[in-house]
């Protein structure tokens, strides 16, 4: 089943971004269109598209100017099976988490969930918050 939301992130250096997402964050290339400088990445059902535009005309809105860090004002939450191992890989790669590894309860409509999480920026400044649900309780 195709995910209903697949973010496409504009990047300044596709090879550098792919190295981060594949070598550090554990994504795999599902397919690539090298002539378009585009890849679709996947990890445990989560998908991301990366594109290094050849010109500003490929940006939406057309001709937009991006300034680093990209993605200001939003972050992507990505649920993984072992957030501790991913955190360790991030630190081994020399990256400083924006949000240190923590366990936190979040209230929802009918229950609460305990998640282990941390956040890190990709090479273009997009904020990724990796989470793992540990426990849920009825509220």
TrEMBL record:
Keywords: Antibiotic resistance. It holds the Pfam family Glyoxalase. InterPro entries: Bleomycin-R, Glyas_Bleomycin-R_OHBP_Dase, Glyas_Fos-R_dOase_dom, VOC_core. Belongs to the bleomycin resistance protein family. The keyword Membrane does not apply. This is Bleomycin resistance protein. Residues 2-133 form the VOC domain.
